[in-house]
Specification:
heterodimer, A: alpha/beta, Rossmann fold, 2 domains, 5-stranded parallel beta sheet, 9 helices, 27% strand, elongated, B: Rossmann fold, 9-stranded mixed beta sheet, 13 strands
Chain lengths: 312, 250
């Protein structure tokens, strides 16, 4: 009985989502092995040694893992899967892409987006974009989980441990897919999915031009920018800004909703935020029902004031 | 090129769902149902590929209760040529869905399976990837752009922190993300015409698939309510409270 975690990293360091996944695994109270796949990833192994409580680190350092492909990464996990009773990855686009391939090959029903572990057989996960919470029990001998990173506090990196590092070679079937390239989001703003602060605008912002004031506030706070579906449909901002059931589901430390009425579809995407601020001229807007701090008024008066107040 | 488009019947995204008081699940009776929005995007993309002369035949498939035929009619009204209904309970797990789809793929021999990245009811985000594994086909999940170059597809994917492009050789699986396109509405004449298009029914039994679920739902509850907040008087109070009380700003 032991756990295999497939690490998400950027070749230099583990992603915070991996550290949260390790925290989740610790609730299962079984030995944990961390699998790191990539090319030139010694730095990641060295960093992983600073995590307490890992049984070993398995390093698959090979050119075939330079690009992250579900086809190759799933084969590596499958090669090791036999001895483990649990396989965990973060429920990020990385983990979501790879793990169902592993589950299907092992004939296991995967449990997605786990937000709590009640026992080694009982897990809690959101459905309907978090509008309902499902507790499920598994009788499968082996279980495969993706872990929602925002639901578990990342394990700390401490003093270096003497965790053994095992180098592993994998023999893979070449995939019929080729990595072409990657275009990182503009680095001047944090990524909406993982930002600590998000400033979102809705239809109340009124126009594409007016959205500048949302951008200015976001930049002042070092925040990512989001939007409601109404703002996206009205053409104020591109689709990928959309927070909501069919857009991005996020849980930042601080969410500031500006000119957003709070349609169900939008609330589903942000209601997990730690602190919610709503600024809206309609005192009866549903957004105020989920806001920790509500400010009723005209956003075009309030935002310049807010800007000045933050500068103090 | 033949495209298979699996679609799912789900509660309409505009409906506020209600958790049943006995905690057995979410109320589905007398609730407006619709095609899963991500599947609608898949249908739209397939129809566009046909309009561009790149696809020759579009087949939609759904696995679900009798009512799911409505969603097949929607797909047919949008431009899909024919459809397959596999009757099953509403709550069928993704692994079983993928197994049924793998059998349908064997029968239909499509070059491409195009489907939503996830259904907005159970939010599992598994079916496309599982189907790809069962068929040993390449996959491009979370697609925001699809281009065809000869027999290959170049697919741009929405990943955390950016966009990634993959090149796939057919046959392949592509799952759709929100940015891929904006689905059209079905025109009335097409809705009428869709009534004449064929829908075939194929039982899971005849495909040799038993539909036992692997997981047991113990309960379904409402999410914890947020404790009600306060209205602040002005910007100064807001900033002060965010700094001192919530410690959300430094």
């Amino acid at each position: 009985m032991s756990i295999l975690i497939l690490a998400e990293h950027d070749s230099a360091a583990l992603k915070a989502a991996t550290l949260s996944t390790i925290a989740a695994a610790k609730k299962l109270d079984l030995p944990i092995d961390l699998l790191v796949l990539g090319e030139g990833i010694d730095a990641v192994a060295t960093q992983a040694k600073n995590i307490e409580g890992l049984r070993k680190i398995i390093l698959g350092d090979n050119a075939v893992f330079k690009d992250i492909l579900a086809e190759t990464f799933s084969q590596a996990v499958l090669a090791l899967a036999g001895e483990y009773s649990f396989i965990l990855v973060p429920a990020t686009t990385f983990g979501k892409n790879i793990l169902p391939r592993v589950a299907a090959k092992l004939d296991i029903q995967q449990i997605s987006d786990v937000i709590d572990i009640e026992s080694p057989q009982r897990f809690v996960r959101p459905v309907y974009a978090g509008n309902a919470i499902q507790t499920i029990e598994t009788a499968q001998e082996k279980n495969i989980l993706t872990i929602r990173p925002t639901s578990f506090n990342a394990v700390a990196l401490g003093a270096a441990q003497d965790t053994p590092v095992e180098k592993k070679e994998f023999s893979l079937t070449p995939p019929r897919v080729r990595f072409v390239g990657i275009e990182a989001s503009k680095a001047d703003r944090p990524d909406l999915s993982s930002a600590r602060i998000v400033v979102s605008g809705g239809r109340g912002v009124g126009s594409k031009e007016n959205f500048k004031i949302i951008e200015e506030l976001a930049d002042r706070l070092g925040a990512a920018i989001g939007a409601s579906r109404a703002a996206v449909d009205a053409g104020y901002v591109p689709n990928d800004y959309q927070v909501g059931q069919t857009g991005k589901i996020i849980a930042p430390d601080l969410y500031i909703a500006i000119g957003i009425s709070g349609a169900i579809q939008h609330l589903a995407g942000m209601v997990g935020s730690k602190v919610i601020v709503a600024i809206n001229k309609d005192p009866d807007a549903p957004i105020f029902q989920v806001a920790d701090y509500g400010l009723v008024g005209d956003l075009f008066t309030i935002l310049p004031e807010l800007h000045n107040e933050l500068q103090k | 090129m033949k495209i298979l488009i699996p679609v799912k019947r789900v509660i309409d995204y505009n409906v506020k769902i209600r958790v049943k008081s006995d905690q057995s699940g979410v109320e589905l009776d007398n609730v407006k149902m619709a095609m899963n929005p991500f599947d609608e995007i898949a249908v739209e993309e397939a129809v566009r590929l046909k309009e561009q002369g790149k696809a020759t035949e579009l087949v939609a498939v759904t696995i679900g209760p009798a009512g799911a035929v409505e969603q097949l009619r929607t797909a047919l009204a949008l431009g899909v040529d024919r459809a397959i209904h596999v009757p099953a309970d509403a709550m069928i797990e993704p692994l079983n869905v993928a197994k049924i789809l793998a059998k349908i793929v064997e029968k239909e021999n499509p070059d491409l399976v195009l489907l939503g990245k996830q259904a907005i009811d159970d939010d599992a985000n598994q079916t496309g990837q599982m189907l790809a594994a069962l068929l040993d086909w390449p996959q491009a999940t979370f697609a925001s752009k699809i281009e065809m170059n000869g027999g290959d597809f170049s697919v741009t994917r929405e990943i955390d922190g950016g966009l990634e492009t993959l090149s796939l050789t057919l046959p392949a699986i592509i799952t759709t993300d929100l940015r891929l396109n904006t689905p059209r509405y079905a025109a009335l004449p097409n809705i009428m015409k869709a009534r004449q298009k064929p829908i075939e029914s194929i039982t899971p039994d005849s495909l040799g698939i038993a539909l036992q679920n692997r997981l047991t739902v113990i309960k379904v509850t409402e999410p914890g309510k947020r404790k009600s907040g306060i209205k602040v008087a002005d910007v100064a109070e807001l900033v002060r409270r965010l700094k001192e009380e919530a410690k959300a700003l430094s």
